[in-house]
């Protein structure tokens, strides 16, 4: 629910003449200043400490206990027992696999769709203004409403999607209820609701692409495709990088949309790790075991993210030299 | 880039139309369903424009389904979250933008880490803590959690606005002998106002749209927020309640839509683009 794109807000620029001032501040004024800074920060730090950092540490600890929410709750330290059990838990790994497929598909498809739309909106076309405003609506909708809208669309009996297919003589499908179509169907919904935000970020990125380079290349006879590949795409790389990594993480950790669309069904075909963990914690009431699942998920995200960061870093360096 | 090739141009318009249909049709369908009579929905006729406009779904959604009470709950939770978050993040964002050193590094690190974290990991211990404090299944507990979860983004957004205020202005104030907090009140705060309003609005939308934390923390139906109540409606699908369900969904979207409309310029300029995500 709370998210940010680090690239989208300007870094606070420290003025060039700042260095001597800072040195001075660290001297005589530093104690008074530190007290001042503390006073400014405490009101925000307190809730973060109490309701984020402490639960975070507790959560990691819970993963090593047999804590439950049952009638006779237990809370004993059991070491690695949860993790040993987790290794053999095929249902968890299946949900993990589904989560990875889901997050990667959503991130890549959203990027491609949003890139196309951003390029169109950046071109000199009519209807641009209308499209821009209309395209924002899916973004503003509560995820629960998005899920409701798409349940209506996918409805096997009264849904417009099957009716449209029927018009062309194609037989309808129970999109959210069929084993083979459920996951693709929920991916489409996530892409639909993710396009606006990514488009806006890409549009902002496109404004930064120098037009002179494009014009010069066009004069030299470079095709539009080549210009896109060699000028636009490299310039967009930081934005693309930010969008895909954030979309991947957000999707992997997402809950509401799929929970309301399918509750993880049919037959666990859309059981994302978050749903699985939620059910384990609050339906089966095995909080210790569920916390262990959460810890594994965090670890997975961190590993994937660092690998991606590292690859990007190396590419960036290679591009520089 | 201006393209003069008519074939390319035609292709561009076809693509744009395809996007418009993909993005816009589901919304039209929701509106259309919200205006269909139960008879028409049950007849399985699939038309975009209802035969007769059944405006009655809207009042029906409001009176039959506790929608008003849950809308009131959502409004209360969102407004209080917005006020508290804004009040406590303002000074911290200022410190984050203006002071260098460990504090700033720690703040930035936390903001970034909080984006990577699955809410499930926090909510399990949080649920237990709130239960111990007897704050689970209360509005107050939900608000506390919302404040904590919206803070990182709010801090990040606000510190960007603070950083955009030239330091010279503050230094000029300090020269004239004003204390830091006087400078803050008289110089920084007024300049920060547009940023504060935008940030507050985003916090409101985030709380208004939130589903997962409310699902875990709220059990009593009389405390349900709007998303929880709407989800309850879905159980009624297949019966005659589809029209009111769609009407309720439309109503739930209006506040966020209005706010996004107001912030549209800022959104499309991309400066605040990471704000809201499910």
Automatic annotation (TrEMBL), chain A:
Region (Disordered): 1-28
Record GO cellular component, one term: plasma membrane
Cellular compartment(s): Cell membrane
Membrane topology note: Multi-pass membrane protein
One record GO biological process: transmembrane transport
Pfam families for this protein: BPD_transp_1
Keywords linked to the UniProt accession: Cell membrane, Membrane, Transmembrane, Transmembrane helix, Transport
InterPro entries: ABC_transporter_permease, MetI-like, MetI-like_sf
Domain ABC transmembrane type-1: 96-310
Compositionally biased residues, Low complexity: 1-11
Transmembrane segments: 37-64, 100-121, 133-153, 173-195, 235-261, 289-311
PANTHER family: ABC TRANSPORTER PERMEASE PROTEIN (PTHR30193), LACTOSE TRANSPORT SYSTEM PERMEASE PROTEIN LACF (PTHR30193:SF44)
Similarity comment text for this entry: Belongs to the binding-protein-dependent transport system permease family.
Protein's recorded name: Transporter
Organism, as annotated: Serinibacter arcticus
From TrEMBL, chain B:
Keyword Cell membrane: yes
Topology of this chain in the membrane: Multi-pass membrane protein
GO terms classed as biological process: transmembrane transport
Gene Ontology CC: plasma membrane
Origin organism lineage: Bacteria, Bacillati, Actinomycetota, Actinomycetes, Micrococcales
Localisation per UniProt entry: Cell membrane
Pfam families (alphabetical): BPD_transp_1
Domain ABC transmembrane type-1: 71-263
Coiled coil stretches, renumbered: none
Predominant cellular place of this UniProt entry's protein: membrane
UniProt keyword terms in alphabetical order: Cell membrane, Membrane, Transmembrane, Transmembrane helix, Transport
Family stated for the protein in its record: Belongs to the binding-protein-dependent transport system permease family.
Regions that span the bilayer: 12-31, 75-97, 109-128, 140-162, 183-205, 242-263
Listed name of the protein: Sugar ABC transporter permease
């Amino acid at each position: 629910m709370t998210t940010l794109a680090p690239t989208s807000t300007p870094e606070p620029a420290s003025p060039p003449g700042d260095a001597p001032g800072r040195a001075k501040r660290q001297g005589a004024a530093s104690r008074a200043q530190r007290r001042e800074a503390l006073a400014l920060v405490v009101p925000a730090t307190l809730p973060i400490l109490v309701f984020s950092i402490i639960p975070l540490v507790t959560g990691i600890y819970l993963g090593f206990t047999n804590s439950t929410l049952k009638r006779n709750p237990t809370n004993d330290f059991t070491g690695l027992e949860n993790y040993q059990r987790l290794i053999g838990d095929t249902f968890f790994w299946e949900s993990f696999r589904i989560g990875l497929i889901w997050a990667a598909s959503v991130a890549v498809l959203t990027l491609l769709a949003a890139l196309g739309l951003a390029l169109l909106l950046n071109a000199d076309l009519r209807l641009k203004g209308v499209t821009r405003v209309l395209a924002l609506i899916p973004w503003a909708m509560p995820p629960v409403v998005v899920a409701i809208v798409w349940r209506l669309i996918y409805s096997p009996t009264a849904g417009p999607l099957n009716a449209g297919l029927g018009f062309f003589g194609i037989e309808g499908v129970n999109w959210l209820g069929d084993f083979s179509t459920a996951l693709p169907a929920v991916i489409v919904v996530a892409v639909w609701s993710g396009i606006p935000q990514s488009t806006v970020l890409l549009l902002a990125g496109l404004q930064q692409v120098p037009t002179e380079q494009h014009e010069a290349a066009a004069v030299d006879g470079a095709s539009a495709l080549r210009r896109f590949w060699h000028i636009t795409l490299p310039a967009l790389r930081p934005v693309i990088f930010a969008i895909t990594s954030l979309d991947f993480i957000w999707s992997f950790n997402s809950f509401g949309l799929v929970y309301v669309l399918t509750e993880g069904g049919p037959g666990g075909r859309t059981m994302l790790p978050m749903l699985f963990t939620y059910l384990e914690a609050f339906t089966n009431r095995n909080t210790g075991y569920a916390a262990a699942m959460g810890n594994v998920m965090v670890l997975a995200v961190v590993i994937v993210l660092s690998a991606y960061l590292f690859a990007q870093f190396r590419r960036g360096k290679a591009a520089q030299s | 880039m201006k393209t003069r090739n008519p074939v390319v141009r035609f292709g561009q318009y076809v693509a744009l139309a395809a996007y418009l249909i993909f993005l816009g049709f589901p919304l039209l369908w929701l509106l259309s369903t919200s205006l269909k009579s139960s008879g028409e929905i049950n007849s399985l006729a699939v038309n975009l424009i209802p035969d007769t406009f059944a405006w009655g779904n809207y009042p029906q959604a409001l009176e039959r389904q506790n929608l008003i009470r849950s809308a009131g709950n959502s409004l209360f939770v969102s407004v209080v979250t917005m006020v508290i978050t804004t009040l406590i993040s303002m000074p911290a964002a200022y410190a984050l933008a203006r002071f260098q050193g460990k504090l700033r590094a720690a703040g930035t690190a936390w903001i970034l880490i909080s984006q990577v974290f699955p809410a499930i990991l926090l909510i399990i211990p949080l649920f237990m803590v709130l239960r111990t404090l007897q704050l689970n299944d209360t509005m107050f507990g939900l608000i506390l959690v919302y404040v904590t979860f919206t803070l990182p983004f709010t801090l990040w957004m606000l510190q960007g606005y603070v950083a955009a205020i030239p330091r010279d202005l503050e230094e000029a104030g300090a020269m004239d002998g004003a204390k830091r907090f006087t400078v803050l009140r008289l110089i920084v705060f007024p300049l920060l106002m547009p940023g504060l309003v935008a940030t507050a609005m985003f916090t409101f939308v985030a709380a208004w749209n939130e589903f997962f934390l409310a699902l875990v923390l709220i059990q009593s139906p009389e405390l349900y927020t709007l998303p929880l109540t709407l989800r309850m409606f879905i159980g009624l699908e297949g019966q005659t309640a589809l029209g009111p369900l769609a009407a309720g969904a439309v109503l739930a979207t209006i506040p966020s839509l209005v706010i996004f409309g107001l912030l549209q310029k800022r959104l499309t300029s991309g400066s605040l683009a990471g704000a809201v995500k499910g």
